């Protein structure tokens, strides 16, 4: 019998749920049915920025000498190259938020859609280079529902040769989170919230609806 997310005690170090008050506040505004696409996109960017701050706390740095207006001192420079892999299309809305903190981050696209009959991911686009060009891959997708798309994306990245991968999303369902962490126990997960569960159509409850449709005004 499958073990649920709430029944597992081994994921405390793998799953990082943001405690930040601004994350809680902005996520509540994002959930609001009346939030229009313009505001929705803004909130997705802002939440991505806040989660990036937490997800990159362990980036390696190297000492660097700099001249201030008054003296010379030692500062630090991030050593690692970060790559962003937004799962199309909803993940695109998170890129700008990450770029505000890491403007040098590379962006590579993987396109997956969920077959609404089987709820399984179908790959239709892959723009990764021949070999990895980054030290850390951040997989971006607002919703971790059944977990299928996130698992498939990390599978692709591991076959590509990526050695360090993190998943960054806004909301997860316990069912999808359990599947993902069982499939990839070495991949850290950064989230704004873990919701109650999935409905019969595989949508997160209470959730926020279809993140792609709400960002792009196609609901």
Descriptive report:
By secondary structure, the chain is of the alpha/beta class. The chain has one domain (10-216): Rossmann fold (3-Layer(aba) Sandwich). The chain has 6 helices and 15 strands. Strands 1, 4, 5, 6, 7, 8, 10 and 12 form an 8-stranded mixed beta sheet that branches. Strands 9-11-13 form a 3-stranded parallel beta sheet. The longest helix is centred in the first third of the chain and has 19 residues, at 37-55.
Write the layout of secondary structure elements.
Blueprint: E1 15-17, H1 21-31, H2 37-55, E2 61-67, E3 72-78, E4 82-88, H3 92-101, E5 106-107, E6 110-114, E7 121-126, E8 136-140, E9 143-144, H4 148-160, E10 165-168, E11 171-172, H5 174-183, E12 188-191, E13 193-194, E14 197-198, E15 204-205, H6 211-216
Parallel strand pairs: 1-12, 4-5, 4-6, 4-8, 8-10, 9-11, 10-12, 11-13
Antiparallel strand pairs: 2-3, 6-7, 14-15
């Amino acid at each position: 019998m499958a073990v649920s997310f709430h029944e597992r005690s081994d994921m405390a170090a793998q799953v990082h749920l943001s405690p930040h008050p601004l994350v809680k506040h902005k996520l509540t505004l994002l959930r609001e049915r009346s939030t229009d696409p313009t505001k929705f996109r803004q909130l997705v960017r802002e939440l991505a920025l806040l989660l990036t701050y937490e997800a990159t706390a362990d980036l390696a740095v190297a000492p660097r000498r700099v001249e201030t207006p008054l003296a010379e001192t030692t500062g630090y420079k991030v050593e690692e190259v970060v790559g962003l892999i937004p799962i199309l299309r909803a993940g695109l809305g998170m890129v700008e938020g990450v770029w505000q903190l890491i403007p040098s981050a590379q962006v590579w696209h993987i396109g997956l859609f969920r077959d609404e009959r089987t709820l399984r991911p179908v790959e239709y686009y892959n723009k990764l280079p021949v070999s990895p060009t980054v030290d850390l891959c951040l997989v971006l997708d607002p919703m971790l529902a059944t977990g299928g798309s996130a698992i498939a994306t990390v599978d692709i990245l591991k076959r590509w040769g990526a050695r360090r991968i993190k998943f960054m999303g806004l909301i997860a369902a316990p069912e999808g989170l359990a599947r993902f962490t069982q499939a990839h126990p070495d991949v850290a997960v950064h989230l704004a919230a873990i919701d109650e569960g999935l409905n019969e159509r595989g949508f997160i409850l209470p959730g926020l609806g279809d993140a792609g449709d709400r960002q792009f005004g196609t609901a």
